[in-house]
Automatic annotation (TrEMBL):
Keywords: Cell inner membrane, Cell membrane, Membrane, Transmembrane, Transmembrane helix, Transport. Belongs to the TRAP transporter large permease family. It is a multi-pass membrane protein. This is TRAP transporter large permease protein. The keyword Transcription regulation does not apply.
Length: 427
């Protein structure tokens, strides 16, 4: 049965049918051929109960927050400010790509939005200053993946909703690995450009006074991040309430720089509606598919199969990691999460692993899927911003950063406290 479902999933995706529709079609197929019960009769109630959840209201708020920051021109100011501080390193402006992606990851919650923002601002600079197009593009694509790790993260909200785990604890758990990955990206860039200076373009050093003035451009973003995360951890607001406060703060920041116009707000709201509709269609479709899978006994069948292999917990986790790496080549990241979480997470917990820790490990694996062909969304976003050159250049440029992600996977498995010590310390 599992083989038929997997073949059906990949076959429908190859037909370029939207992922949310694919999930519904698979659910209908399982109901018709494998379930002894008429599951579709409960579809209306399932759709309502899934969408009528207060936790998911945080998603459109965080999307709107990112849209406002991008469309009001704050991204350009942030990039220019970080350029003053990191371009002295081997690799020059490449580090500004990673630093800006890290900064916007802490506010937007979306990897694709982060990559699109940085790519739009940075690409003209690469052509003007003579940077290697492969490494420069790869750094943007990889830096953009931090949007689903560093809190607030839409993907962590979805994980918390599907697994009924604490979203504030997930946010805390993602903070250290996210910052560590950003530093690893900067380190590997500096090493590569020190060995081969032609990759990094010109290193630039700015006067201290200019660097200090640039900090003023960063203060509003840092303050906004502090307000969003601080109100959650202090217990003053839920993630949904903090997201609403963040939207108000983003509008205030945009107004400070004269970036608030009716046209900007209209575009931001329209973009939010489009992105949120896509996310909710996938979440609702996945909920229906997971309902049919559970009713048809797929979870029990898969659990019995894995238990029959007689694997140790570590070997079991290696199999799970391999499954996510392989599936990441073919399935879009959010879809990969919502399809696999209800099946994989109970098995992981049964093996004695912490669901908070596994959520962070899964996010790293899904980050890799964002920059691996053929469906790595960040690759297409960056290539679209380039408007020239080959997609293969972006793919090659991400290889050093993929290696850093693999090292993070190994580190998280070997030392789970990398993700857990902050949630445990502040519990």
């Amino acid at each position: 049965m599992i083989g038929y479902i997997t073949a059906g999933l990949l076959g429908l995706l190859c037909l370029s049918i939207p992922v949310g529709i694919v999930l519904f079609l698979l659910g209908f197929g399982i109901d018709a051929f494998f379930s002894p019960f008429p599951l579709t009769k409960g579809l209306g109630n399932l759709v309502w109960s899934t969408s009528n959840n207060a936790t998911l209201i945080a998603i459109p708020f965080f999307v709107l927050l990112g849209e406002i920051l991008v469309r009001s021109g704050i991204a350009t100011r942030t990039y220019a400010a970080l350029d003053r501080w990191v371009s002295w390193l081997p690799g020059g402006l490449v580090h500004a790509n990673v630093a800006t992606a890290t900064m916007f990851s802490a506010t937007s919650g979306s990897s694709v939005a982060t990559a699109a923002t940085v790519a739009t601002v940075a690409m003209p600079q690469a052509e003007k200053l003579g940077y290697d197009p492969k490494l420069f593009s790869g750094a943007i694509a990889a830096g953009g993946t931090l949007g689903i790790m560093i809190p607030p993260s839409i993907n962590l909200i979805v994980y918390g909703f599907l697994t009924q785990t604490s979203i504030p604890r997930l946010f805390l758990a993602g903070l250290v690995p996210g910052i560590a990955l950003a530093l690893a990206f900067i380190a590997i860039t500096a090493i590569l450009c020190a060995l081969r200076p032609e990759l990094g373009g010109q290193r630039r050093v700015f006067p201290l006074s200019e660097m200090l003035r640039a900090l003023l451009e960063l203060i509003p973003i840092i303050l906004l991040f502090t307000i969003i995360i601080g109100t959650i951890y202090q217990g003053w607001a839920t993630p949904t309430e903090a997201a609403a406060v963040g939207v108000a703060g983003a509008i205030a920041i945009a107004a400070m720089f004269s970036g608030v116009t009716l046209a900007m707000l209209r575009e931001a709201i329209l973009g939010t509606v489009k992105i949120t509709s896509m996310i909710m269609l996938v979440v609702i479709g996945a909920s229906f598919l997971n309902f049919t899978l559970a009713s048809a006994g797929i979870g029990r069948e898969l659990q019995a199969f894995l238990e029959g292999l007689g694997l140790s917990p570590l070997a079991f986790m290696m199999v799970v990691v391999l499954i996510y790496i392989v599936l990441g080549f073919f399935i879009e990241t959010l879809s990969l999460m919502v399809i696999t979480i209800p099946i994989i997470v109970p098995l992981v917990v049964a093996q004695g692993f912490d669901p908070i820790w596994f959520g962070i490990l899964m996010i790293v694996l899904i980050e890799m899927a964002l920059i691996t062909p053929p469906v790595g969304l960040n690759l297409y976003v960056v290539q679209g911003a380039r408007r020239s050159g080959r997609m293969s250049e972006v793919m090659i440029g991400t290889i050093p950063y993929l290696l850093m992600m693999l090292l993070m996977v190994v580190a998280l498995i070997a030392f789970p406290q990398i993700a857990l010590f902050l949630p445990d310390a502040l519990q």
